[in-house]
Structure formats: structure tokens, C-alpha cells
Amino acid sequence: MPQVITGPGRLPSAAMAIRSVLVIVVAALAFAVTGCGAGSSGPITAADSFLGAFTARDIETAADLTNRPEKALAALTSAWDQLDAEELHANTGAARISGDTATVDYTYEWRLAGGRGWTYSGQLPMVRAGGSWTVRWSGAAVHPRLGDTQTMALSVQQAPRARVNEQSGSDVLVPGTVSRVTFDAAGSADPHRVAAALSQALDDIDERLTPERILDSARAADGAYTVIVLNEVEFGRAGPRLIGLPGVRVTQEWDMAPTDRKFAPDLMVQVRQTVIADVDGRAGWRVVARNANGAETGVLQEVAAQPAPSFALSVDRRIQNAAQRAVDGRREQAMMVVIEPSTGGILAVAQNSAADRDGPVATIGQYPPGSVFKTVTAAAAMAVGIATPDTVVSCPSAITIGERMIPNYEGFSVGDVPMTTAYARSCNTSFARLASELPESALTDSAAAFGIGPDYTVAGLPTFSGSVPAAQDRTQRTEDGIGQGRVVVSPFGMALMAAAVASGSAPTPYLIAGRDTAVDGPRPGLDPEVVRGLRAMMRQVVVSGTAERIADQGEVFGKTGEAEVEGGSHSWFVGYRGDIAFATLLVRGGSSDNAVAVTRDMFAALPGGY
To answer: Gene3D superfamilies recorded for this chain (predicted)?
Structure first.
């Protein structure tokens, strides 16, 4: 090895000349030693050859470059196979030589399956025999902490999958094994008998699966029809009863399963579709050392699993259950949407089975709003300055504007009254007149201020807020102003309107915490004076107007509506109590009192504190 000769003080001239000669000699010797240790026949070159073969997965060549090829072959093969390795990069570093032995620093960079990376450094032992350097085999050639009889292996620990919770933290969707039950009617000699047996086997899980419904659906399907998807507990109950039924097949698969299939079933389907791709966490892994018997003797590398965080829904279990029970009590299509005004959180989306047949209509259905739209008309009238809650308006039994005759319900009239009274009594004639006097875009602008009209991209929830086209024609504005004409809305849109009155501005709705909602369309601000006026008017609807039925349920603010449609009329009630805004719709439910009754049932079922 090169040596550096130094000494104290300054040398005389002759000594300097001698020192120069010594430096040249020492440098020459250093070159000779370095050439011998690291040149074409040195340990680094031999190490590079070994690592080149090892990284190229040319195991036999790499093993032949060691002094114990058989042991090296087994160990190097095991390293690639047991690590489930995809690629290896290696670099050599400094060499240290002591006679006929040496060590060469190395760095390994493994790329393992699943995008895992593992880098570590060690020292490759070398030996010189017959003038040539070769690898002196030991476990350290693979990893610095491996003994000669040890191997290493990759072990993967799956991360717990995410769960979906409702507002209070309880699970509503959990990862697990589900059992898909299918029925191929063509594969059964007696499909009627099989459908009846299926219905009986599944009756305690889903009473809606009647023999007729199962058979009709199976016959309409192109091939096997999915009768039901069972969670693990349900399959434990029903599985034995399904064995041996001709044409019935049960397959198991991983999925997100509801903890309670009666809890917001349509909504849970939509949430599942939204989160399913993001429920897997990042798996943990470790590389362990094993002895000749396969027992683990140490951990060489460990990366902890990173579970995916649970998804938190804005849905409130108690409100959702109360709303669901309330709509389930009706035969016609019944639905309710409940929003938290202060946050925009969706507290409940409830539909009965009659409504479910048409899809998620509570949030995307398009219905004329009838008299609940008088809230928008009243706000527009106040905003443009043609009326206030105290302005006296005429409420005759009927009024003709242009070619349209507008009657009040059953021809009632109350004469000249403040707009608050006309609103509380739901005078069509009063609000038709006000609408006819508005500018052509006033209703459109007023509706947008309540959140009606813009498009909302809500994660986990398809939505339609409403459509309120501008109307140049005076007659058209008249019809639109009482919620008929071309105006259509959804219960979701009407719940937004009620929430806007409660909070003073249109909230941005959301369902899954942390998932932003995109809003496409203008939402002008609401004048605080308009909001105060509407609140007073909506309170009178409950205190002395068309929603007195719900007056015993606390300080409720609301507006009733009955929208005329072919074959009947829709029953509406919208409003709020505290931080709970709602919209209830019974399709062809008749009198608005029916929607009030359903809403009252929801509030009556809530515990104290709501």
C-alpha cells in the first residue's frame, strides 16, 4: 500500500534533492501496488465480473466466479426467487487488500415485485489463488448479515382495506368476502319451483324477493341473473338452503359489503362505486433471514403496512333511518333529501321501493315543484323591489294573465292580504301576478341564488338541482312563478333551497368528507333582507298556514306545494328545523298535507337533541 513519508521542519538543499528521489520512488511503488490490487487482475475487476453476472441473473456464471460454486449457486438462486425480485443493480466501491485476501465494498439496489425498492451496502470477501482473484464465498456476498447457511425471503403483509363510516363513526360498508347468488332459468327443468325455493331461502334477508320477481327477472336476463349478493353473515344463514337448487350458482368474491342492507341501499350502491378503487392501503413488507430449516432468524428490512384511511360520509344514521321509515310508509313513490345547512353535508337520501325502481330519483329526478317554488318567486319579487313580506297583494279565487287562467286550490280566495299571508295560504293568484311583473331572467337568477340550476359534481352522488329557463313571454313567467310551466327540480335541489334560507346562502353539498364538489354555474349571493323575509314567511306556513300538521315538532320553517301533472298531482313539503333542511316529495301523492305528514313522521322519530 502507498505510504506517505513526512517529517518535521525544513530540509536542506541536498536533503531536498534526496527527498525528491524518494517521492518518485514511493510514487512508482504506489502505482505498482495499485495496479496489482485494482487493475485488470485485481479484486475490483473480479468483483465487477461476479456482480455483473449476479445482476444479469446469470447465476451459474456468478457461482463459477466464487471458490465454492455449488453453495453459491443455491444461495444466489434462492435470493432471486425468494425475494420475488424483478431487477438488481450493483456497484463496487473501495478495495482493501491484505496479502492474498481482500474486501470490496458493494451496494445492491433491488427492485422487488409491487414496486418495492431495497438498497443496502456490504463487503464482498475476495481471495487470491494462483495469481487470480475470486470471490471467497459466504452469505455476506448476498447480504452483510447473512450467515453461510442462511437465505433471505420476502414476506408481504396486506394492509387493512378502508371502511366507510356514517357521520357518527359506525360502519356502513366494510371490506370482505361476498357470495353472489345467480339463477339461470334456462338451466332448470322447473324454474317456478326453484324461484319459490330461492324466495323462501332469502325471505329473512330481503322480503322483496318474491317468487314472481325472481322468475320474471331471471327470464328477462341474458344468461344468469344475480338474485342477491350476500355478506358473510347472511351467507352463513342462507347458504345451506341454496345447495342443490337447479340453475342456482353461488360464487365468492371480494367486495365492499353493507353492514345493513336496509340502510340507504341505493345510496350505498353509489358510494361503493365511488370508493371501491381507493380502499386498498399500501401493503407492508419485510425481508427475513432463514436458517437451513426454514425458520426465521432475523429481519433484514421492514416497511410497515399503510392502511387506507376510512371514508367518512356526511350521512347521519339516525336521520337516514328516520327518513327511510317515513317514506317506506307510503305506497306511491316517496322520497326525502336532508341537508345540513351549515356545512352542505348530505344527512339523508331516502326513497321507498316504488321510487327505487326508477333509480336515484331523490337526487336526479325532474319534477315540477308547484307551490314550493313560490319561495323563489317571493325572493325575486323582494330582490327587484316590487314587494316585501308586508306588501298587500290581491288573492282572488282566479286570475287571467295573457291566455292563461290561474285558479287557487279549490277556488279559495282571501282578498287583499300581506304577501306573508298569501305565501302561508299558498295563493296561486297572488304569486302568478307577481311573477308576471318580474324581468324575464329574475326567476332564473333568484333560483340560482338558492343553488337551483347549477350542476354539482358530488363524489358518490349523482345530482340534478333543477332547471329554471329565462322566460320572455309574460304568460310563461306566470306559470313558472307558481312552479308549473317549464320549471323542473329534484328533491335534492329543493333541499338546497331550504338550506340556503336556513344558512343565508346556498351551501356546497358533499357526501364523502375530503372529496370536493365541483359547481358549474353561477350562484349569486342572497340579500340578508330577503332571507329574513323568507324565514318569517316560512314560519307562518307552519304556525298558521298549510303546514300546521307539523307545528308540534318544534320550530319548523316550511313551504308546501302541490304540482299538477297528468294523472294527478305531486305532493311537496320543503323547509328546515335548526340545522336540518329537508325536501319531501310524494309522486302523485295528492294533497301537500301528505308530504307534511311524512316529514312529521321523520322528525317525530328523531331522538332529543336533533
So the answer is: DD-peptidase/beta-lactamase superfamily
Which pLDDT score, from 0 to 100, does residue 386 have?
96
Nearest Cα to Cα of residue 602 among 381, 328, 385:
328
Indicate the pLDDT class of residue 26, thresholds 50, 70 and 90: very low
* Mean pLDDT across the chain: 91
Cell of 314: 356526511
Query: Biggest alpha carbon distance in the chain?
Result: 133
pLDDT band of residue 30 (cuts 50, 70, 90) is very low
Query: Taking the model in full, what pTM does it have?
Result: 0.78
Q: Are 389 and 421 in contact (CB under 8 A)?
A: no
Q: How far is CA 28 from CA 97, 98, 465, in A?
A: 18, 20, 88
> Cα separation of 422 and 537, whole Å?
9
Secondary-structure percent of the chain, ordered helix, strand, coil, rounded to 5:
40, 30, 35
CA 364 – CA 492 distance, rounded (Å): 8
**CATH node for 43-143:** 3.10.450.100
Which is nearest to 605 in space by CA: 267, 324, 263? Answer: 324
As beta bridge partners, residue 179 has 230, 252
> Strand, helix or coil at 260?
coil
Other C-beta atoms closer than 10 Å to the C-beta of 416 total 12
Name the grid cell of 102. Answer: 481482500
- Topology alike, domains 43-143 and 317-605: no
CA distance 135 to 46: 7
Lowest mean pLDDT among 20-29, 247-256, 428-437, 533-542: 20-29
Query: Domain residues of the chain, as ranges?
Result: 43-143, 164-278, 317-605
Question: What are the backbone dihedrals phi and psi of residue 265, each rounded to the nearest 5 degrees, phi first?
Answer: -60, -45
What is the per-residue DSSP string for 86-154?
EEEEEEEEEEEEETTEEEEEEEEEEEEGGGEEEEEEEEEEEEEETTEEEE---GGGT-TT--TT-EEEE
For domain 317-605, give the CATH number: 3.40.710.10
**Residue ranges of the alpha helices (H) in 176-281?**
191-202, 211-220, 232-242, 265-275
pLDDT score for 114: 85
Are the C-beta atoms of 348 and 471 separated by less than 8 Å?
Answer: no
3-class state of residue 39 by DSSP: coil
- For residue 202, give the nearest of 250, 147, 162 by alpha carbon: 250
**128 in Cβ contact with 251 (< 8 Å):** no
Quote the CA–CA distance of 137 and 54 in Å, as a whole number.
13
- In degrees, rounded to 5, the angle at the alpha carbon of residue 322 between the alpha carbons of residues 515 and 261 is 65
Residue type, 506: A
Provide the 3-class DSSP secondary structure of residue 59: helix
Q: Which residues pair with 392 in a beta bridge?
A: 418
Pairwise CA distance, residues 95 & 47, whole Å: 10
Find the Cα–Cα–Cα–Cα dihedral 322, 323, 326, 327, rounded to 10°.
-150
pLDDT in tens, 115-150: 899 999 999 999 999 889 999 999 999 999 999 899
Q: Is the pLDDT of residue 8 over 80?
A: no
What is the rounded distance in angstroms from the CA atom of residue 246 to the CA atom of residue 187? Answer: 7
Rounded Cα–Cα distance for residues 542 and 250 (Å): 53
